[in-house]
Each structure stands twice: as C-alpha cells, then as structure tokens.
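Please, structure for the following, as tokens.
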Amino acid sequence: MIIGEYRSKVGEKKRVSLPKKFRDELGEEIILTRGYENSLILVNKQMWNKVAKEVIDGSFINKNIRDTSRFLVGGATEITIDKLGRFLIPEALFEHAELKKEVVFIGLVNWIELWDKEKWEERLNYLKEHGEDIANEISKMNTTN
C-alpha cells in the first residue's frame, strides 16, 4: 500500500530521490504528471492506464474532459529511476509545482503526490484549519449519492 510521508532534497539537474518504499510499491514503470494545488503526481503504469481509460472513454466534446486531459495527460512523462533511486523532473513540471530545494512525497494509496516542502506545509496548515468543514462536505456528498 502506498502510504506515508517522506522528505527529500532536490539535487543537481533537478533530480530527486524517490523513497525506496515507494519505488518498491510503484515498480519500474512510473508516470509523473501535473497534480492539483501545485503538486506533482506519480503513478505506476497500471494506475495510469486507468486514468487514461477514463479520459479516452470521455467525450472530447465535453470541455471539462478536454481540460482534464490537457492538464493530466498533456504534462505526463515516463520517468527513469537510476541505480540510486533518483529521477529527473522535467522543467515544465518543476515549474508547475514551484519546487525549490526540499520536497515532500505523500503516499495516497493509489498515487504519490510530490510537493515543495513549503507549499506542503501551507497545505497541511490549511487542512488542519478546515478539516472539519471538509469532512462535513464529504459527508453531505455521501448522503446525496
């Protein structure tokens, strides 16, 4: 199961070390793409195929499907992990996530989010402050479905 929070530093050439636990969980075929709230998303090929199928099965006439495709699929790249567990973050994705010197990997069962450390701390504070409101909104959604 992909869970946990791990910190890493950005090395030269915008390389980052993927925690061994996450490497073991994801396998060798890994996709990196844009995430929401200025994060990046890492998924294995199997999960990526599920995401791609949802996009492919959607109608290109639908603006929301086109925009989601542009955002997630348009920025996606296959990454290669070196012998030390490092991978290179392409410039466009590095800029999207506003990465600096330190990053945080967050395991979310089916995917991993990669955040700039400061951005993650801001988001975590937001979640602490609004956690009850968020839980109430999810509860409302579950009762209407």
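The first strand starts at residue 2 and ends at 9. Strands lie at 2-9, 15-17, 30-34, 40-44, 77-79, 86-88, 102-109, 112-116.
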